[in-house]
């Protein structure tokens, strides 16, 4: 069954109006404490504020006052937080005192965990699983290795090689596959890189990655687009960037919600192990809570002692360095909330000079998802979600020079009670719904890069055909040579006005002004929503 449509008409109005006024500036650094299970009596609250601008301050004060685990930020005016039985009454008072409200989204986290784990246990099998099982179940790490070997040996639709990225802290090899068109002689093709699982508990992300592998390698649905996708790109997919965390999250219900790696180097307290891999990439790295990091090993967003201190992030860096300028598209898969995010995540005041290109790709993704009744929000990670320095997307863009670097926060969304504990029977719907959007953006990126390349070739015949390396003049790396070229919010760039048509209305705007592109997005989303609403006679669109 699919997640229900996200927004009511009232919320759509609120969303639009508040978006217009508050889209510009807020930051939400997470400071969660790693909470050990078991989770009897723990609840998940969906906390609502009246105005978007109130959300960041409330969240910050709440997490400063209590060791709580923020599960997600499913909308501009709400966030999900797990609360222990001891904290319940204090947290409720706290929320009410701050003029906010809440509803209980998960009544008993332990019960949800038990059901989830029982279901997994039920599906545990000794014999090796058929490859098609990735559409129905969350594989354990051992099963993922078997699956990948199986794919390498039996792929019918592509040539597959199986390699290792390097070892994790606990010494596990980190497998990845390279999927190429059958018998292709073409070396150094452009590459799509997809990584998942840096956050251990976000199981739908590795599952999505495995399903993409399955589709590319076997084409189980006779998808006519696959030939083009494999002709245009080689695909490199790393389903579990953090194997130790993934194994730990599969151990039992009290470890199921583990997020970080499993390093023991920075604390002797067993509850304070691990580094948040997505705070450890060495590009504009910061462990400051004001940039979404943390220097306390006991927190869930511990950044590590310095950028690339962890083998898991270094392994990915080595791969990207080796691929050089070949990477056309980089996707970092996470859950949850249904967001399509681009850099920068480290600072909400730093914006990309080519934001309109990123937004265009994002809109393609969101439009394709909308066709499947799923609402995705698109924008820069720091502005749409919260500031978080040291994430893979920022490094891919700023450090590895990949222009099209994105984070996808997959399903579910706020109206689902499951969060990270999305039942396995949702996997196939999530994959079926998302695959068209992934295909769409791969082809969009290919067209955009090759258009640019052709234009450049017309101007300069020396262009290297497979060099996607993006010299980023909005990044601090290149700012070293020119000190003031980060495109800050509020900078005056009013000269380049262009006419833009949004759903049939014409506007004059500066395509590089992030406030305008966000505004357009909200407006388009809202109009789309209204059309759907009207088409169904004021009722929610029926679930499929
Ligand atoms: O906080 C994160 O690392 C990601 N969200 S999650 O809920 N999966 O933990 C978002 C990362 C977005 N990218 C950047 N901040 N650069
Ligand atoms: Zn994540």
UniProtKB/TrEMBL annotation:
InterPro entries documented for this protein: M14A-like_propep, M14A_act_pep, Peptidase_M14
Compositionally biased residues, Polar residues: 287-306
Keywords: Carboxypeptidase, Disulfide bond, Hydrolase, Metal-binding, Metalloprotease, Protease, Signal, Zinc
Cofactor(s) required, per the database record: Zn(2+)
Matching Pfam families: Peptidase_M14, Propep_M14
Source organism superkingdom: Eukaryota
Residue ranges annotated for the Peptidase M14 domain, each copy included: 137-445
Entry keyword annotation includes Protein biosynthesis: no
GO BP annotations, alphabetical order: proteolysis
Active site: residue positions: 409
PANTHER family, per database record: FI02848P-RELATED, PROTEASE FAMILY M14 CARBOXYPEPTIDASE A,B
Protein name: Peptidase M14 domain-containing protein
């Amino acid at each position: 069954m699919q997640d229900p449509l996200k927004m009511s008409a009232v919320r759509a109005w609120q969303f639009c109006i508040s978006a217009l006024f508050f889209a510009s500036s807020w930051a939400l650094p997470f400071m969660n404490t790693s909470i050990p299970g078991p989770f009897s009596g723990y609840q998940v609250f969906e906390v609502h504020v009246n105005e978007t601008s109130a959300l960041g301050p409330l969240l910050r004060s709440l997490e400063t006052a209590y060791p709580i685990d923020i599960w997600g930020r499913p909308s501009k005016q709400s966030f999900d937080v797990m609360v222990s039985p001891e904290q319940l009454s204090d947290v409720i008072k706290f929320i009410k005192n701050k003029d906010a409200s809440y509803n209980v989204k998960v009544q008993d986290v332990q019960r949800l965990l038990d059901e989830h784990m029982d279901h997994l246990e039920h599906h545990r099998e000794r014999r090796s699983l058929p490859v098609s099982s990735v559409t129905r179940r969350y594989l354990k790490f051992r099963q993922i290795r078997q699956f990948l070997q199986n794919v390498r040996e039996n792929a019918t639709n592509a040539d597959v090689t199986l390699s290792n990225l390097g070892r994790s802290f606990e010494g596990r090899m980190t497998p990845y596959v390279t999927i190429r068109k059958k018998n292709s002689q073409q070396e150094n093709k452009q590459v799509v890189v997809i990584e998942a699982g840096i956050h251990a508990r976000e199981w739908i992300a590795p599952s999505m990655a495995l399903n993409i592998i399955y589709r590319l390698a076997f084409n189980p649905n006779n998808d006519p687009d696959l030939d083009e996708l494999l002709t245009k790109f080689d695909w490199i997919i790393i389903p579990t960037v953090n194997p130790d965390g993934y194994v730990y999250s599969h151990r039992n219900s009290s470890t199921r919600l583990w997020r970080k790696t499993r390093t023991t180097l920075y604390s002797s307290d067993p509850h304070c192990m691990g580094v948040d891999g997505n705070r450890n990439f060495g590009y504009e790295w910061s462990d400051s809570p004001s940039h979404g990091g943390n220097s306390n090993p006991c927190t869930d967003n511990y950044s590590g002692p310095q950028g690339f201190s962890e083998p898991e992030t270094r392994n990915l860096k080595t791969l990207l360095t080796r691929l050089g300028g070949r990477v056309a598209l980089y996707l970092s898969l996470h859950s949850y909330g249904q967001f399509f995010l681009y850099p920068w995540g480290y600072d909400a005041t730093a914006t990309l000079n080519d934001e309109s290109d990123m937004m265009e790709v994002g809109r393609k993704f969101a439009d394709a998802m909308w066709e499947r009744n799923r609402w995705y929000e698109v924008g820069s990670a720091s502005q749409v979600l919260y500031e978080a320095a040291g994430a893979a997307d920022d490094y891919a863009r700023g450090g590895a020079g990949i222009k099209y670097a994105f984070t996808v926060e997959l399903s579910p969304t706020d109206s689902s009670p499951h969060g990270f504990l999305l039942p396995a029977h949702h996997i196939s719907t999530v994959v079926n719904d998302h695959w068209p959007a992934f295909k769409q953006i791969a082809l969009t990126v290919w067209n955009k890069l090759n258009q640019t390349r052709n234009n450049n070739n017309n101007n300069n015949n020396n262009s290297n055909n497979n060099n996607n390396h993006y010299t980023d003049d909005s990044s601090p790396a290149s700012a070293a040579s020119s000190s003031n070229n980060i495109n800050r919010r509020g900078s005056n760039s009013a000269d380049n006005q262009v006419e833009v048509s949004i759903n049939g209305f014409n506007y004059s705007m500066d395509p590089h002004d992030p406030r305008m592109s966000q505004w357009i997005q909200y407006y388009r989303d809202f109009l789309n929503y209204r059309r759907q609403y009207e088409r169904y006679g004021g009722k929610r669109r029926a679930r499929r």
